[in-house]
Design brief:
Shape of chain A: elongated
Structural class of chain B: mainly alpha
Largest sheet of chain B: none
Low-confidence stretches of chain B: 40-56
Number of helices of chain A: 30
Oligomer: heterodimer
Radius of gyration of chain A: 29 Å
Main location (chain A): membrane
Strand content of chain A: 5-15%
Helix content of chain A: 55-70%
Pfam family, one (chain A): FeoB_C
Number of domains of chain A: 3
Family (chain A): Belongs to the TRAFAC class TrmE-Era-EngA-EngB-Septin-like GTPase superfamily. FeoB GTPase (TC 9.A.8) family.
Largest interface: A-B, 70 and 43 residues
Strand order of the largest sheet of chain A: 2-3-1-4-5-7
Distance between the termini of chain A: 71 Å
Distance between the termini of chain B: 62 Å
Radius of gyration of chain B: 18 Å
Membrane topology (chain A): Multi-pass membrane protein
InterPro entries (chain A): Fe2_transport_prot-B (IPR003373), Fe2_transport_prot_B_C (IPR011640), FeoB_Cyto (IPR041069), FeoB_GTPase (IPR050860), G_FEOB_dom (IPR030389), Gate_dom (IPR011642), P-loop_NTPase (IPR027417)
Chain lengths: ~675, ~55
Amino acid sequence: MSGAALIGNPNTGKTSLFNTLTSSYEYVGNWSGVTVEKKIGQLKDKSGPLTDLPGIYSLHPLSRDEGVAAEYLVTDSPSLLINIVDASQLERNLYLTIQLLEYGKPVIIGLNMIDVAKARGLAIDTAYLSERLHTEIVPLIARTGVGSKELLSCMNKTEEKDLSPCFTIHYGAVIEEAILGISREVNSELTFSGLSPRWIALQILEDNPAVMNSLALTEATLSRIRAIKEDALKQLRMKEDTSSLQDYIRSVRTEIIQDICASAVDQSNRKPHTLTEKIDTFAAHPVWGIPIFLAFMLLTFELTFDWLGNPLSDLLDAFISGPLSTLVEQGLTAVGASGFTHALIIDGIIGGVGGVLVFMPQIFIMFLIISFIEDSGYMARITVMMDKLMEMVGLNGKALIPFIIGFGCNVPAVMASRSIEQPKERTLTMLLVPLMSCSARLPVYALFAGIFFANSQALIVLSLYVMGIVLTLVLAKLFSLFLFKDSKSFFMVELPPYRMPQTVTLFRSTWEKGKGFLRKAGTFILGGSVLIWLLTYLGPGGIAAEMDDSFLASIGGLFAALLEPLGFGTWQSGAALVTGFMAKEVVVSTMNIIYHVPDMAGLQEQISLAFTPLQAYSFMAFVLLYTPCLATVGVLRKETASWKWTLFSVGYSLVLAYTVAVIIYQGGKWIGLT
Amino acid sequence: MADIVIITIVFSYAAFALYRGIRKSKKGACSSCSQRKSCSAVCSDSPAPPSTPKSK
């Protein structure tokens, strides 16, 4: 098998099927545009490679990621196409199917979501469909894996027999003549392309830029093709009322699709109002939608902190500071380790890494809820509700996807900005992504809000997230007014039906998101903790007797005066913020090492002596907004390909953080808060 | 003796972890990302889009 490709409309379950058919795990979500690049995996039965392509409605691309599929068909020429079709949206899905059948290579239709179609009261006659389209049809439920074995065996059978489809649409004399003419031109130039000349001719008649660019025809051929097209359009206009060849071809295909669907789909039991429509009347309401979303977020934080996260975190803390520390302590004593080694392991590693690891429950719960929102279909509604707001401030609706990913980690969020076609909008999005409160900042909030705002922890954390979002909108407006004028592009999002996420998928997706945090704790944060501990152990005069004489105190002290107006002008805060540039979790590690205390309760007591609630809030806001972490700066440099924009991102966020923290602290003091 | 072994292991591992972390961050793109395997913008070494706006 030289290669099969999965191709279909957005959000039809291609990646779910890809994960089932290959042994890889790729990110899936119940929202359009999750896949923006093609991915290649090996089929489980080792019969060859399988390529997963981004979802498209037709081969005519609307954005860069949509062009990936059309370019792939021209340049890679797969031997087999597996077209995933959403059974509940058959009519819309068949448009792409027809273009694929015309491609000339064997096509298998994976009729997915037959369960959803059934729930809507739709019955599909697959035998009739197969007969009309002259191709194999395999019913599927990709989410649960039903039908994947049949699909795999059908793929092997089709491959062996090399059955090319004999499906052809007669587009009328004028178009057929043009197809012949263009086919001759293309054939004379591309003798070994292996592509169907009829398909290429149709794509050219439809003005498909991705196909035309990939073919790289000579100017002479192109001008002859242009003449054929102009002539065809002229002749067509004499007979039909059509504005372009593309429109006419579309209308012929649509007519055939409607004819097929009329016989293949039995709608007699169709349910008038689906559950999705009922939920959407309030969840995606233009007025109530946003308050409902905010209430949902508040609920998320209640769960993440008060209800579930904190009790679990306390248990973990009790284990790390209790049995684990005692065991390590005893082990070190048994092997005769010195005081230095004791301090290094207990204060440095267990203090630094353990101090961050105790917040693992909060991070995992947060990821679980994010995965639930994505997989249930609610995420797509959020993007639609925010789209108007985004447009008002000069951002592309597509920017929402990076922003939402940014709540997990800013690095993949910056990468996800690639799906934005307009370079200016893409740069604007990348610059603003770091304002999204990533999961690395959660430990800082959990620590501080837990100490100073124990009764309203969820509300305080929600306020920080909202602060990030509001500032993003304000800055987007400012930046688009002064830095990125005149840019507009197209955003389209499809609303998938709501569905109850599969438990396995949910936990898998949570684990995939969360394991990065664990890996980071065991590598970078551990390394950082040892370095920070060493900086507290040593000072300009050798071994520091007091931590105030250490190198870390000297480094933090440099910034203390500068941080004074913000309410936390101590060397400890300065040091925690400087080291937090490595990764934001390190702010907590540093605090643990500086205040070297045996457990969370001890640390909380120390911090409650060093900060007031107002200072703590100002500190949290500063951590939210100040410079993106090292990894984000790295990815920004790579993606913007400009040091100027990277430094601008660091610079503006520092200024913003400073201004906001000053306003919070000084303003708070002014109105009498402490 | 055990002391020296522990200290050597801890410091070498910490130095290695920091070195690798910083090197990955410097490289940018997917290599620095904690979610690169489960990422929506998965980048099988694909180049960044070529056009970026020129600063004013």
